[in-house]
Amino acid sequence: MTNTYDDMIHLPHHVSAKHPHMAVSDRAAQFSPFAALTGYGAAIKETARLTDGRVEMDETMKEVLSDKLRIILARIKEHPQITITYFQPDEKKNGGSYVTATGTVKKIDEYERIVVMNGDIEIPIDEISSIDGYIFEIL
């Protein structure tokens, strides 16, 4: 009884003279799964990331913040320690997050409407939600 492949079963393994031998790890890589939807995982992750909505302040609270900024401006040479909480809009989607910065105020630019703190942190005045510090204890 003869099998179909009896004539070549005992032949030596062919080694190509043109192409180098492929490593086992490279050979296995050609059969590995691939990402058919590139970027889909990142898009899902971005969509799931939570953002906060901006809280609108009433006129009384805006007036209190304005008074505190005037106090800081009047006593800026004393380098008082201040904690400012402000809204930072998200660059990729609606909403943002509330950030708290603590330090000394370098300057208040009323034209650009920003507060510059140590470390060159620039805080838009219109985004400030609260200002705290020991210089306000008399209020």
Provide keyphrases for this structure.
single chain, 139 residues, alpha+beta, SH3 type barrels, five-stranded antiparallel beta sheet, 3 helices, rod-shaped
Can you offer a commentary on this structure?
The protein is an alpha+beta fold and 139 residues long. The protein has a single domain (1-139), classed as SH3 type barrels, CATH 2.30.30. It has helices at residues 24-29, 40-48, 59-74, and strands spanning 81-89, 96-109, 114-117, 121-124, 128-133. It has a 5-stranded antiparallel β-sheet, covered by helices on one side. A hairpin with a 4-residue loop joins strand 2 and strand 3 (114-117). The model has no long low-confidence stretch (mean pLDDT 85). This is YolD-like protein. It comes from Clostridium aminobutyricum.
